[in-house]
Each structure stands twice: as structure tokens, then as C-alpha cells.
Amino acid sequence: MWNEKMAARAKCREIDPDALFVQGAAQNRAKLICRGCPVRTQCLAEALDSRIEFGVWGGMTERERRALLRRRKDVTSWYDLLTSAEKRYEEERSQEEPVRNAPVVVAGH
Question: Which pLDDT tens digit goes with each residue over 47-67?
């Protein structure tokens, strides 16, 4: 769950918090702040589990979060779901890396 340690690692800790509580097209700019944040998944999970109604959290607007909550009423813990999905993704990605970075062998050379 969200804690002080995670908050200290968040990219948004260095900006004006009001930048994440905007309307309209400004929300798309606010979502960019979350890109590449090391605690983005946990932040989004906190917003979903706590039903936070306002602001951009974990790269999603309140409207996007409400739609997700309506579609996935079966989820009892967004933290568990999202962090386990992130872990699986990272594991799959690490298994693919050696193949992707392998030297290219050209026949006849």
C-alpha cells in the first residue's frame, strides 16, 4: 500500500501538486508527469482502492478511473492486481532481453 517511502520516490514530489488537479486538455499534460515514474503502479492502485475522485493519479484521470472501476467491479484489491501484473510483465521482459540483445549473425560472414 501507499506509504512515505513510495511518496519520496514519486516524480510528482518535485512539482506543484496543483498541476495534477486540472480540467480538460490540461489533464493530458498532467498525465505525462506520471510517465516513467517508479511508483506509478502503486499510485494508481492507491487511487483505485481508495476511490480517490479528483486529480491525475498513476497516469489516469478521474474519468478514466471511474470507467475502469465500472468495468472491473470484481476487483477487490487493485494494489494486488496491478503489482502482480507489473511483476509478471517485468519477468517476461527480462526473459526476452537476451534474445533481443543477441548479436545478429549474417550467413556467409
Answer: 999 999 999 999 999 999 999
Domain count, the chain: 1
Residues making up the binding site: 12, 34, 37, 43
Give me the domain span that covers residue 29.
2-76
pTM value is: 0.81
**Annotated binding residues for [4Fe-4S] cluster:** 12, 34, 37, 43
Residue 104 lies in a domain: no
As a whole number of angstroms, the distance between CA 109 and CA 106 comes to 6
Instruction: Please say if the pLDDT value at position 42 is more than 70.
Output: yes
Residue 107 lies in a domain: no
Spatial distance between the Cα atoms of 31 and 29, rounded to a whole number of angstroms: 5
Query: In angstroms, rounded to a whole number, what is the distance separating the alpha carbons of residues 37 and 89?
Result: 16
